[in-house]
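## Example record

The block below lists the input lines for one assembly entry, exactly as stored, with component labels intact.
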Amino acid sequence: MSFDRAVAQSADLPNSPTEDDPRHHVVVIGAGFAGLQLVQSLRKSGVRITVIDQRNHHLFQPLLYQVATTILATSEIAWPIRSLFRDRPDVTTLLARVCGVDVTNRQVELADGASIGFDTLVVATGARHAYFGHDEWEATAPGLKTLEDATTIRRRLLMAFEQAERETDPAKRQAFLSFGVIGAGPTGVELAGIIAELARHTLWRDFRRIDTRQARVMLIEAGPRVLAAFPEDLSTYAAEALRRRGVELLLGKPVTDCTAEGLRIGETFIPCRTAVWAAGVAASPAATWLGAKGDRAGRVEVQPDLTLPGHAGIFVIGDTATVKGPDGHPVPGIAPAAKQQGAYVAKVIRTRLTGKPAPAAFRYRHQGNLATIGKGAAVVHMGRLRLRGKLAWWVWGLAHIFFLIGTRSRTAVAFSWLWTYLTGQHSARLITQGTLTESNE
Amino acid sequence: MSFDRAVAQSADLPNSPTEDDPRHHVVVIGAGFAGLQLVQSLRKSGVRITVIDQRNHHLFQPLLYQVATTILATSEIAWPIRSLFRDRPDVTTLLARVCGVDVTNRQVELADGASIGFDTLVVATGARHAYFGHDEWEATAPGLKTLEDATTIRRRLLMAFEQAERETDPAKRQAFLSFGVIGAGPTGVELAGIIAELARHTLWRDFRRIDTRQARVMLIEAGPRVLAAFPEDLSTYAAEALRRRGVELLLGKPVTDCTAEGLRIGETFIPCRTAVWAAGVAASPAATWLGAKGDRAGRVEVQPDLTLPGHAGIFVIGDTATVKGPDGHPVPGIAPAAKQQGAYVAKVIRTRLTGKPAPAAFRYRHQGNLATIGKGAAVVHMGRLRLRGKLAWWVWGLAHIFFLIGTRSRTAVAFSWLWTYLTGQHSARLITQGTLTESNE
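Predicted structure tokens for the full assembly:
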């Protein structure tokens, strides 16, 4: 690919401080929920904004697991970042990889050697998976953060059924028909629920030698219950709903090994050829760039106004930062929290520019938790409202469609869901990249 | 990936001749248009069928260029092969790679070491691109045959605009904004038309430093006119419609070199960082497997009943074979021709099994040619009917929607087209795989 050569050739950047633009320059690294909200909240604020992301698209991560499980197409939950800002001439989008920040000279350093000056910097680079010191597990049990992660997991799930169909040794065949999801937060619960539905309802008539309904789907959690962030009665309901769908719950014991042959849970080894990691997250390397103090997960510890200690012009928000909520607990790594932080920082920047008094410290307002388990089953916890079952499932679906960007995606996702709901068929059952052509020779 | 290990372990196959099934066993290699039609036409014929394909999906190739140009999602034009045959217990689908055929012992040999016996073999493995002895050009100018090809071209197109936005040297920037499509058959014309629309209508408001409307889109053809298979007046119309859309036609001179820096056309070197190959095709290696005589493009020369000379139980159909039409010209490599051959071979197999007299030699019925140039412009040539412009465009669109498989895909494609038509926006503008994360370090 000619990209490396190309960026190496590029010299001055459009927004480098050599350019003669008197406006206050806000540089945002990362166009996830936090970064996007910040830019939206800075509309007509008089600043100029540069958004840097290493990908060309904003991703609606809460539905990524549905791409991994063949329900949605990649383009239904991802939008080109620059098209989101097409009507904002104050915003410049850069597809580039950041490798460091010079906090003293206020420069963001890019991997291609260029650098970009800023007046205010907002770091919103999100998180990756944490394997608790076992990074070698990633090859066996990939996590789910990017579109590529989702298509990788989709390929592995579908290939496992194909391999089981070809396998004649019953023990080996069962290993191909065993699926392990590690971590029983919302993503893990949603993944396990859909994999069970895929095996039990979508695929079984397609195969001739295996009965996909015999697949073993395990949800593995070191803690004592699923959906630990929810009240206990909703956890109990979710566990029951998972079991009814044929998901086996392995609670209270950590995964102690993870190989291509299977998983070790506590002392027990379970043959299992397909695993997905939905357990811990680690922040992006932003703390290292900033020379800042990070917590155990690498998240930057920020001031009450979300600035980096000692650097009033640098904010760290979203999953990259660790912030205490009003109850003393850390603010959770979910989309609404990231958006609130983006909106808050926009307010701080506006008050600084107009010389008004700074707003009070950032205060997280928890709106609620939602998780779906499968067709007709979900849990919703919003303040005093606790829902489960069909109604919760509709609330979950409508909320997610509402938060998608644009009529196009809302219609497409609604149609995909309706189709899956009515026919039980998933439309995105594609094995792409690394198919037999590439991997088998 | 654990696949290699898995297939190496697999022993006997479900349909190997050791299995005690008295039914006549038809093995089909390739689930493209020809293979799929064959299986459909063999419904209730009393044979058992094994379909072998190295991919898990059937692909609607006529619309693949719309995936490459960000209009359609991959899953809108591809379907899992085994789900197409879910209601056919007589059909077994194998995801496997064929590496040879033992014509004497009637065995298909798979890359994993297994082999599958057959009573009748139908080879329908399609074609790849031909670079006329310059295989090194493929890296620079990829062709468009698979979903991976389409996402690769999509990534390159979008990356070229991104790189142009970052480039400050005007000459280099213009090279990034130059796009060469090589070959002016229907695929080349359709690609060039949409790339021009993408640059002129879809992208221009998204960038800040470049004017994407200044992009140079070249359609390069060694022959004297575009759409050589069409009558001359329709070619003239198509050329005019392309020019109106800003496509530059370079006709009558072959591409003589193809590098990452640009294309040499005749003696002239044109800087151009993105090229797509839509010129020649070469058949799959089936001729080699069969030890058969191939033409210059590697297509197997078959008997009038589409059998391999000297092997009445082996048929070769679709783009893998070369067959003369009633006018003495070779049958074109298009979907209707492949389908007719599949249906014909099913008829031959049926008559053989029932002892009825063999049908007459295969006779290709040409139904017509269609090609689209861009929004509101297409050409249709069906017998005496010649259409151009808006009406032809609607005919083209409806015909393609009609030939898609299933309500799901028809609705999704119709909706995607309607959206693009009304808003000018393309929904699948995603750069995936080989993004900065992977390629830039």
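The radius of gyration of chain B is 23 Å. Chain B is about 30% helix and 25% strand.
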